[in-house]
Amino acid sequence: MPYKKIGDHGIIGNGATIALVGLDGAVDWMCSPTMDSPSVFGAILDDRKGGRFAVTPEASWDSAQHYFRETNVLQTLFRTAEGEAEVVDFMPAGEEARRLAGGRDHLIRRITALSGEMALAVECSPRPDYAREHPEREYLDERRWRIPDGEAFHVFSATVPLDWEGDRARIRLRAGERVFLCFSRGGEGLAQSGVENLQAVLEATHRYWLDWSHTEEVTRYPAERFWRESLDRAALVLKLLQFEDTGAIAAGATTSLPTILYGERNWDYRFSWIRDTAMTLAALFELGHSEEVTRYLDWLKELCAHEPPGRLQIIYQLTKAEPPGGETRLEHLEGYKGSYPAHIGQYNVGQHQHDIYGELLETIFAVSRYVGKIDMEHWEYLRPMVDTVCGIWRDADSGIWEMRTGPHHYVHSKLMCWVALDRGIKVAEHYGLPGDLERWRAERAAVRADILERGYRDDLGSFTQHYDTDAVDASLLMIPIVGFLPADDPRVAGTIARIEEELLVDGTMLRYRMDDGLPGQEHGFMICLFWYVDCLILQGRLNEAGAHLRRIDRFSNHLGLFGEQYDPRYKEITGNIPQAYSHIGFAVTAIRYLNARRTQNPRPHRLGWGSRLGLLARPRLLNPEAPVGQLRENPAEELKRAVNTVRGHFYDGHRQRVDYHLVRGSGYYRRFREVAADLAAFDPGSLATDAERMAFWINVYNAIVIHGVIELGIRDTIREVPWFFRGVRYRVGEHTFTPNEIEHGILRGNRRAPWRLRRAFGPGDPRRELAVREPDFRVHFALVCGSRSCPPVEVFEADGLEEQLETAAKIFLNATTRVRPERETVGVSRLFWWYRNDFPAEDAELVRYIARRLFDRELGTWMEKRADSMQLRYLPYDWRLNES
After folding, report:
1. Neighbours of 108 (CB within 10 A)
2. What is the reported pLDDT for 787?
């Protein structure tokens, strides 16, 4: 078979490996068992030697390729003069499909004649170890054969007998007839399980991908038609690039597809760059998928355990916490269309690329908008990275483009060091997490001054690629995107204008024009184009940005897949496919564009003073709607997650405020109200233990406070509405509850509120039975999601309540305590004055209670020793919802 264009392929995968399937029905690339394993089908790198798995009509044909909507199940349609046929390609995905298939390591091809009849040629020519092996087949029966691959075996199986001549066989089907062909790693041949089971595997895989596409872990991004389909496809591609066993994400699925045809720029992208991975996770998170972020953060912890504190390599293998091997040529392969050499491994393993910490901390910053996604355990290994940046930002490095002419003082690297410091500071401030904030702020100011002094050239009117050149490169477009300078700053505007003039070519964006140590000039680099469109959006040039995005399908293939680069002269994708960078760029830019097109400043909803005062006599019921759909088992947990989503989506981390006035009318808020309605159908009397009661009612309390803030039009502080905590209520089961009643009647065991003569629930009140029997007064620190001291706990749960309450206490106490050792005074929140009976009565014991929970252990130890002589001062309680 002749070589196809790189873009004439679709992809399928199983969370471990990916296969490229051509418009001609040929699987031209697949590695086994993982993406970074040696190839078993590699025809895309050598048409004669590489091996393929093809199903193609014998007669003249044309074809079309589609994905089943919102899935990674691929359909290839063939049409000949005799009839039509369909090939459906997939790998088992999800628990149900893998149970039916006995694992995930199967490539399954369903061939169906749709009309007439069709003769199809089958070629299955596996060539393990990048075609260095050509093993003999062992025929098991007329439907199965196998070949060795090291210590493993690959097994071909079919649901009908096939007559093989070498690597080839023939199938003839009439309308309605169906055959399955399977290629498996290990086992006895999946096709032996029969057509019905294989069809069930397909249907289960289809359901898995549909369910995943509709995941609402942080709520699916609201978009319609073209935007929805395009964003879904980007998310599905990025999902395939994640190795599910570790959470590591590959930059691409292939190796050595040339960026310049017949050139030498042929690289292996089947590894996990810290930079690419961080950007992929940020994109997936914006698209509504947080599980992938959680999985990678667990893997990141494993990586950090193998490195000095705060240090990371720039690139890792997918399967183990080690960098890949150095770059090796596959001398026996001719390369795609003769683009020699083909490479495996990476030459850049030993490079220093300082920007990786900025990309990672930028992602952490984005994820931290949603309460509980970044917790104390994560922070323990993230915090040292900020310290690392303090020590390395002044050094030269090899930069984002991994040039072979460096190292240099790249502006982009310095910029991302500034980002790492800035985001580290803001995450720590947001949650009261420990960190050397004074040093971080000083270094942030220093790197900013250095960039402005040495990275900008007045005579050129622009920033430059590095401190010792006049040239620009596209990575400078990140300056306004990360918020270092606004897009309308003359220095930024001049840089964008110069990049437009020098690097924008036929609608594509070059990375740079300069000697990078390799021959040839690359084509348009897709993510750079998306950065440029981001800048247009930030400059308010929305019509120009929209024009670029509406034409974006020129640069993707027939399935919406992007490669690394695009050659506008030959109108073809170049480089490895699919490329994570490119799909990241599209997703993030499309979301930015849709946000900019929406009305961002609707008329604020404000409650009049008469209505506010009326709440005292008649508290507003916030969940009057009837429950919708299937009732949730624990609506309080789902409600707290919905609160996190609402606050997170409308949280501006740079200004450290939630734009509550934007929430009403959003899809996020509608879902929040639907969950709140379920409380009316829940029986709180079913909560059997104090831990269950506390976790449930803490979640409900935090939800009702945020719900009241939104409904009453509060912008900055709850004190805008007098008697707020008695002015709103939820129906939970048969009764209604105000925040006051939840706090004092239930969580404090029906104790009196400060300055109140009566308890929340009187002697005949049936709600007394719901009260916590033995209160844990650390609950005070958990009831603060209506303030700036919201602890990083996603959902309070009975099983983990002890640890969660202790975390809430530490966060609150470290954020609110002010110690002056020279005067032996400690300033504490006025909350301790209001609730003196809930905490140690003696001042010295209260000092020790606080000291034991301070992050600064040296200070805490000193306070414990000096507790008897220290003076307490009560500081004003911070009622603000936001920083300002």
Report:
1. 24
2. 57
